[in-house]
Amino acid sequence: MSYSVGQVAGFAGVTVRTLHHYDEIGLLSPSGRSHAGHRRYEDEDLDRLQRILFYRELGFPLDQVAVLLDDPDADPQEHLRRQHHLLTARIAELQKMAEAVEHAMEARKMGINLTPEEKFEVFGDHDPDQYAEEVQRRWGDTEAYKESQRRAARYTKADWQRIQDEAKEWGERYAALMEDGAEPSGEQAMELAEEHRQQICRRHYECTYEIHRGLADMYVADERFKAFYEAIRPGMAEHLRDAIHANATRHGA
Fold this sequence. Notes:
Elements: E1 3-4, H1 5-12, H2 16-24, E2 32-33, E3 39-41, H3 43-57, H4 62-70, H5 76-110, H6 116-123, H7 132-139, H8 143-152, H9 157-179, H10 187-203, H11 209-221, H12 223-232, H13 236-250
Antiparallel strand pairs: 1-3, 2-3
């Protein structure tokens, strides 16, 4: 039984043009022709095509495939061994690329488009992606979260560095205010609490007084946030919470 070029192309999942090319270079010439001169492939031709496609799938160029199929002195085992080595090396490269892409995807997901080196320069030991899943789980459906993501996606390394520097400078001023014995309900403390809220509005999302109150409570209730503020000055988490609440109250919230 013989088959037309179209039938063979359908069997093998290749194009008719590919089969014509294989014929032209002598890699796979059909065993017969029809009365009209059309190519007709026999079962042995299909076997040879299967071997060709096998080697092509492994990445062998067509000239090497021809050698493997037609040269009696060729050692298919040696060729396969060498190709296995090349494929193994390629797989390792692709795995590294996949890891890099995954990292880039996660960074994009968080909106922080920095390399690992840049993140370390800006944030130090604090990994901004550390709580990414938790943040998305808790606030992912809120407009504030979505707005924060949109803004962060536009920030450069210089932008993040400026944000970090501003936060550090604000923390130093708040610590100095506490050192002077200022009360949380005092004018200076409330002004710094308002500045804290405005910084969030400028950098991340529209932080209403109600949202700011919720953040203030979290700064005390969540040990991770509390540790951050306590590292600036002991007692700062509670002091800032009270100042934020006092500031919200004076603004009628």
